[in-house]
Design a protein that fits this description.
Elements lengths: L9 E9 L8 E6 L7 H11 L4 E5 L8 E7 L2 E3 L3 H13 L9 E6 L2 E8 L2 E5 L11 H11 L6 E6 L7 E5 L2 H6 L12 E6 L8 E7 L4 E4 L3 H13 L6 E6 L7 E8 L2 E6 L1 E10 L1
Parallel strand pairs: 2-3, 4-6, 10-11, 12-14
Antiparallel strand pairs: 1-2, 1-17, 3-4, 4-5, 6-7, 7-8, 8-16, 9-10, 11-12, 12-13, 14-15, 15-16
């Protein structure tokens, strides 16, 4: 006779596609509601089981200005902040009938602090959080990254740490075609979280192509990445190397068609995209 463990909790659950107007073409995030009574080992186990780049858990806030608290897990561990889980979880929270304290802004509490989210006619956008680390890469790190990507050093026009929690650094390549042509050596990439960005030709459907590599988190390539795009935008707009508003395409090599919308408004840089619930139901713990 096989004995099965008892179900101790059934939670509402959504899987939300983020950064695409077309369902199943963006980046999915699994969202579990009312997770404050679940232990950390169950959160981590469920994130490994979904095998998505991120799984999130909604909890009551601990700070008075926050509307909800969010914990974010990859298959490899917990993150203080991530972008597409922020938008997807906010979409799920709003879709379940919740109302923010302020009419124009939703405030998310997470490991990186308070993150503001705005709703622009159904398209959600978060204000890029402060960078934890900036400045040029160490020469050895840059050389390792270039070797792991299999590119020529001359293809790298610029580079910088753009870490807002996950540990990103960014490389600006000479073109979107160069970004798309990269075939990484993920074993050689261990210990690094690399973001690539390169410009598309004028008249293209997007201004830049982005790719994100995070093998240490159990995700070799992330389909569409809000946190990386936030860091890249802060770097490139701040340096005058990118316009105040632009559009990114990401996920192309993985058969996705993600679109990330970047806008600087005053002192804030907003990272936006469409969100769609694709799965809704309950999950048993």
């Amino acid at each position: 006779m096989v004995l099965y463990p008892s179900i101790v909790a059934a939670k509402n659950f959504s899987q939300v596609d983020v950064f695409s107007q077309i369902p199943f073409q963006g980046n999915p995030v699994a969202v579990v509601f009312d997770a404050d009574d679940l232990p950390d080992d169950q959160l981590a186990a469920f994130a490994r089981w979904t095998n998505l780049s991120e799984t999130t858990f909604l909890l009551p806030p601990t700070q008075p200005k926050a509307d909800y608290r969010l914990r974010i897990f990859t298959p490899g561990g917990e993150l203080p902040f991530a972008g597409h889980p922020t938008l997807g979880s906010c979409h799920a929270w709003l879709s379940s009938g919740n109302v923010p304290q302020a009419a124009s802004t939703i405030v998310q509490e997470c490991g990186a602090g308070l993150v503001r989210i705005r709703n622009d006619a159904g398209r959600l956008a978060f204000a890029a959080p402060p960078l934890r680390r900036t400045g040029p890469l160490e020469q050895e790190t840059l050389q390792r990254a270039v070797r792991s990507l299999g590119i020529a050093p001359a293809q790298v026009l610029d580079q910088q740490w753009v870490d807002n929690g996950p540990g990103w650094f960014g490389l600006l390549l000479d073109s979107a075609a160069s970004v798309l042509a990269v075939r990484p050596d993920f074993a050689a990439m261990r210990g690094m979280k690399i973001g690539l960005i390169g410009p598309h030709p004028a008249g293209s459907t997007a201004d830049y192509e982005v790719r994100a590599f995070v093998p240490d988190l159990g995700v070799n390539e992330d389909p569409v990445t809000g946190s990386l795009n936030a860091g890249l935008a802060q770097w490139l707009i701040g340096a005058g190397a990118a316009p105040d508003s632009y559009t990114v395409r990401q996920g192309t090599v993985l058969g996705r068609d993600g679109r990330v919308h970047i806008d600087r408004v005053g002192a804030d840089i907003w990272i936006g995209g469409n969100t769609t619930t694709c799965v809704a139901g309950t999950v048993s713990f």
